[in-house]
Design a protein that fits this description.
There is one protein chain. The chain is of the alpha/beta class. Helices cover 27% and strands 25% of the residues. The strands form two sheets. A six-stranded mixed beta sheet has the order 5-4-3-6-7-8, with helices on both faces. Strands 1-2 form a two-stranded antiparallel ribbon. Helix 3 packs across helix 4. The chain binds zinc ion. The site of zinc ion has 7 residues, from helix 6.
Length: 205
Amino acid sequence: MKKPIDVEKAYKEANALLEGHFLLASGNHSSRYLQSAKVLEYPQKAALLTDALASMIRAYGMHVDTVCAPALGGVLAGYELARSLGVRSIFVEKKEGGMELRRGFEIAKGEKVIICEDIITTGGSALKAAHAIEALGAEVVAFASLANRGFCKRFGSPKEAKKECMLPLNIPLFSLDDFTFEMYLPEECPLCKEGSVAIKPGSKS
Ligand code: ZN
């Protein structure tokens, strides 16, 4: 399948594809990091990405009522995707052991929902979001993300899911591209061995 948009170029142009030595949320180290907040900084550019994602979803031919994002990371991407699809946008928030719908958001029985993240790594947060709204009667028809870190199978990609992927294999994942860069256990990290120190990018800097 031809790439609908060059998502790597979009991340690079937004200085959102960082290169260095990073400590990831999982505890692993990596020489690259995707800072999606930067690629979503300009709504007009964000819309180009979510319009492309919406085109893939429309081409698949599925009916969608609502986009639901896990907060905080998925909210901007989810909101823009909802705009591109012309449907409503809601989000779920972290609670002990999972996620929940708050703020008066409601779900109807049988409502068809896409769970949208900025990046899908192993899909853990997306899966918790799916469980939260399925418990309220929603039907999760797809997962979506701007980029896929290469653990889960992206619809249209020949690459199979790896064992780390937590998303169900019978529900499609729509994503603009695969970003399959290496992650290292701290004790095996070649960057640490060269003497540099991993920094934690993202929300606290
Ligand atoms: Zn390291």
